[in-house]
Amino acid sequence: MTTSVTNDSARILAACDLLAEPVPHLNRESIVRLTAELVARVTASDQGVVALEGPDGTIVHSYPRRIEEVASSALLRRASVSPGWLLDTGDLEDVFGRGLDVRAVAFEAAGRYRGVVAALGPIGGAFGAIDDWLLMVTARRVASQFEVVALHEDHLADQMLANDARLAGEVQQAMLPSSSDAPGLDVAGFARPARQVGGDLFGWYSDSSGTNVTVADVSGKGASAALLMASVQASVRQALAAGITGAASLIDRVRTDTGPVLEQTGRIVTMAAARFHPEPRVTIASAGHSPVIVRSGDGCELILPDSLPLGVPARASVGRTLPFADGDIVVLGTDGLLDQCDPAGRRFGVDRLLTAVAAARGTSNEVAEAIVASVAEFAGGVPQEDDQALVVVTRGSARW
Amino acid sequence: MKITTSTEHGVITAHIEGRLDAHTVADYIDAVADKVGPHNPNVALDMAGVEFMDSSALAALVTTLKRCLEYGGSIVLVAAAPPVRIILELTRLEEVFPQVESASAVKTALGLGAR
Fold first, then answer.
1. ipTM
2. Which residues in B lie closer than 8 A to residue A218 (C-beta atoms)?
3. Does the CB of A200 have a partner CB in chain B at under 8 Å?
4. How much is the pTM?
5. CA distance A308 to chain B (A)
6. Which residues of A71-93 are buried (b: 16+ CB within 10 A; e: fewer)?
7. Under 8 Å CB-to-CB from A314, ≥6 apart: which residues?
8. What are phi and psi of B18, to 5 degrees?
9. Which candidate in A37, A118, A156, A332 could, as Cys together with A215 as Cys, close a disulfide (CB 3.0–4.6 Å)?
10. Which among B53, B44, B43 has a CA at the least distance from the CA of B85?
């Protein structure tokens, strides 16, 4: 009798120690194994058993491994009845073996994990009320551990998403031109997505007889817009590699290439293309894209689209050819610049952009910076809602 | 954004107020674009109360238009506010979205004949 009391006291003390310990950060498999070992240690059982069911209802871990899926399933079926309380295991003898008593307690954690902590021992053997109590304590303990695991998994998932977005943003930035190398032209680009990745793109590509500049804006924002942007960019490069350098024909080719994916996704893309010739002149085509502005000695002119956005059934682009003398500037932006609101809710709009372009001086980079600064000053701290991108092309004095 | 809809004689009429943009366009698609079908192939969008519209919203309007055409119907914009007119002009999409000034002109614009 004395021995029994002493043993019970020791087991209760062991359980108290267990509860006082901080919950260690372990993986799921280790928690299952250590809990089963703990059950064997603190209860009068021959074998501790833990079975764990994941969010999709499949058994993700059980210990010991010789406890087959049938046994784990049999335990888990009962676990749906009353987490935290002793389960009715009277009919599990056939599953675990004749002559074995099964005491089991179910647990749930974070609404995601469901499991059973069980003790196996001989029928009519040592199991008593204290064992049931210790099993319940152990079940609470393991539930706490899985709460921690769930929190950690959520944190890891958030971190992975944030990392993915950051890397995607870096990849997207790397896809933009890094130099202003275009014979006879001074070219500068600026891109600021509203999120880490965006749906605006620009690029410039020179060959022996001129330079192409393209700017496009995929409807929507974020990762899906960025993927479509990459598709548009690939189409532009393929077309240019195939010698399609005319501004209107380039847009028509991209319209054909991207038609199926835009149809499927319900997106539209606006796109402007400019072909700078040595003569000096520039041909501009726009598929529903604004703003495109040409600044010359005559002032600033907003070039309106000559065709509908990509993703909308449309006639072929036609384009328009203009003189492009030394000192003239072409600005190709995206609507995120026009749509930037101020604290009063007013849009930056075309008129303010025309004023900013007219006033800007210096290199293409300085002109781009001045335009961006005008938009930022107008915003007055109102967060940017849409992706913003801008390319400025100035005709330099260098020869072609 | 606030959107209220009613359906009569195969025409879905929607009154839209506020900002129609990337944040609210899903509500528009649920309320209007997804309702277009063989029995309701026409859409009239009252856009007098639209304060702002972005490219996501434009894409949703284009999707609505395509569905209307698929079922033999059409779409008409009613009393479009300046922010709507501006973006339609800047994208040239005014070509594909007929506009009328008042609800009384909707049926004629949709080719249904005035009643």
1. 0.88
2. 55
3. no
4. 0.71
5. 6
6. bbebbbebbeeebeebbebeebe
7. A255, A287, A307, A308
8. 95, -150
9. A332
10. B53
